[in-house]
Amino acid sequence: MGGAEHARDEDVALAERLGELIARENWVLLTGGRDAGVMAAAVRGAKRVSGSLTVGILPTESGAHAPGIDIAIYTGLGNARNVINVLSSRVVITCGHLTPGTTSEAAFALKTGRPLILLSPNPEARAFFRDAQIARSPEEAIELVRRIVG
Q1: What's the CA dihedral at 45, 53, 4, 97 to 10 degrees?
Q2: What are phi and psi of 15, to 5 degrees?
């Protein structure tokens, strides 16, 4: 999970690599589903792997989603769909500098006891989310997930 329209190039690159690594583990990639920023990048990365499965939980009732989304779920809930994103995930990974929407997902993950991994977070996020695990690379994030899910 991470920023959409204003995602930094380095965050997009991290997300694309992370999506590919998630797919290589045969895990399902769940994103916010939009064709923007780290959401679209993670899906692009996952789709490099044959047989990958991607799910997009979208804020609208209809419309476009990121190319490569296999299952698009249109909620009509706007930002409230972030709760679905978190509750549908076994582990939550944020990617790069946290935006307000991603911050809400990270906070809800901690509130509900979901494991939270911050991949290359900004210093403010690192300081605020002290109970989260920090990963410096997509590979390190995957290793943390492996330890969590067994």
Answers
A1: -70
A2: -65, -40
Residue ranges of the domains in the chain?
Answer: 9-149
Average per-residue pLDDT in the chain? 94
Where helices occur in the chain by DSSP H, the ranges are 9-24, 37-46, 81-87, 100-111, 123-128, 138-149
Check residue 46 and give its pLDDT. 99
Read off φ and ψ for residue 107, nearest 5 degrees: -65, -40
Domain 9-149 sits in CATH at 3.40.50.450
pTM of the predicted structure, to 2 decimals? 0.93
Please identify which residue in the block is written with the tokens 């769940």.
Answer: 30
As a whole number of angstroms, the distance between CA 149 and CA 146 comes to 5
In the chain, the amino acid numbered 66 is: A
